[in-house]
From TrEMBL:
Belongs to the universal ribosomal protein uL10 family. One of its GO terms (cellular component) is large ribosomal subunit. This is Large ribosomal subunit protein uL10. Pfam families: Ribosomal_L10. Residues 168-183 have a biased composition (Acidic residues). It comes from Sellimonas intestinalis.
């Protein structure tokens, strides 16, 4: 069997992994201990992120003709592929957070939603909260005015209802001096 035929399934597996991916990040894993690598893989797996160590030539062939072709220039030295199909910022967030404790882990570059970013760009993207966090913040912002209105209405009801509110409004208008019409 020719070498090309042996390598084709590997290239196809990489192509299947990156197909419909929201983001792909390349990292240099040299210097990680087995314990660190195991912990990193565990965190990525829990987030639904794929982590594979692949040969650069195989990744180059899998990237050809895709939006990830811009990563070819970063494929030097040992490289691992981190792929997310759901959360676009999850790989960057997890890798950059892990790199703070494991200084041997180095981010090379990545593609997030079709845009190629270098290591600094991926580091900035890692600061973006997840979709769930953003949605919860939005929901909290939307609920805040409604909650405040409910508190005010509850206080009005506790103080005697709408009649007390109207009486308070009449007292407030009686205390203010009447305006004289301008001539």
């Amino acid at each position: 069997m020719a070498k090309v035929e042996l390598k084709q399934p590997i290239v196809q597996a990489i192509a299947d992994d990156i197909k419909d991916a929201q983001s792909v990040v390349l990292v240099d894993y040299r210097g990680l201990t087995v314990a660190q690598d195991t912990e990193l893989r565990k965190q990525l797996r829990e987030a639904g992120v794929i982590y594979k160590v692949c040969k650069n030539t195989m990744m180059k062939r899998a990237f050809e003709g895709t939006e990830f072709a811009g990563l070819e220039e970063y494929l030097e030295g040992p490289s691992a592929l981190v792929v997310s199909k759901d959360d676009a910022t999850a790989p960057a967030r997890i890798i950059c957070k892990f790199a703070k404790t494991a200084e041997a882990l180095e981010v090379k570059a990545g593609v997030v939603e079709g845009n190629v970013y270098d290591a600094a760009g991926i580091n900035e993207l890692s600061k973006v909260p997840s979709r769930e966090e953003l949605l919860s913040k939005l929901l909290g912002s939307l609920q805040s005015p409604i909650t405040n209105l409910a508190r005010v209405l509850n206080q009005i009801a506790e103080q005697g209802g709408a009649g007390a509110c109207e009486a308070a409004a009449e007292e407030a208008s009686a205390e203010e001096p009447a305006e004289t019409p301008a001539e």
